[in-house]
Amino acid sequence: MVKKVPLRTCVVTKEKCSKGELIRIVKDNTGNIFIDETGKANGRGAYLKRDMDVIKRARIEKQLDHHLEASIPSSVYDELENIISK
Q1: How far is CA 20 from CA 8, 37, 51, 73, 80, in A?
Q2: What is the distance between the alpha carbons of residues 80 and 8, in angstroms, rounded to a whole number?
Q3: What is the predicted pLDDT for the residue at 86?
Q4: What percent of the chain has pLDDT over 90?
Q5: Contact 64/46 with Cβ under 8 angstroms?
Q6: Is-contact 44 68, C-beta < 8 A?
Q7: pTM listed for this prediction
Q8: Nearest-5° angle of CA 30, CA 78, CA 73?
Q9: First-to-last CA distance in the chain?
Q10: What is the spatial distance between Cα 49 and Cα 27, in angstroms, rounded to a whole number?
Q11: In 32-86, where does DSSP find H-type helix?
């Protein structure tokens, strides 16, 4: 029996990808915004593809701000770029 791979949609490219190809950004119930590397943190989540161009597009077009209904600090985008460039 083949195990089903959970798919999630990137908020920038609208591509459906496996969770391993994406990074989850979470806004918890206190309004904190952080990168959820485990994929299990409580709160409203948005997924971005692990691609530098996608991160740059998200920063310019403010798509995370819209999806999470909050202003995303630039430190979150900087941390995303650091994770991807590793």
Answers
A1: 10, 10, 12, 24, 15
A2: 18
A3: 76
A4: 83
A5: yes
A6: yes
A7: 0.90
A8: 35
A9: 35
A10: 18
A11: 52-61, 63-68, 74-85
Which residue bears the tokens 């600090």? Answer: 73
Beta bridge partners of 9: 16
**Cα separation, 65 vs 6, whole angstroms:** 25
Cα→Cα distances 28→4, 25, 40, 43, Å: 28, 10, 12, 4
For the segment 6-19, the average pLDDT, to the nearest whole number, is 94
Radius of gyration for the chain, computed over Cα atoms and rounded to the nearest angstrom:
13
> Into which CATH architecture does domain 7-85 fall?
2-Layer Sandwich (3.30)
Residue type, 33: I
Contact status, residue 83 vs residue 23, Cβ threshold 8 Å: yes
The residue count of the chain comes to 86
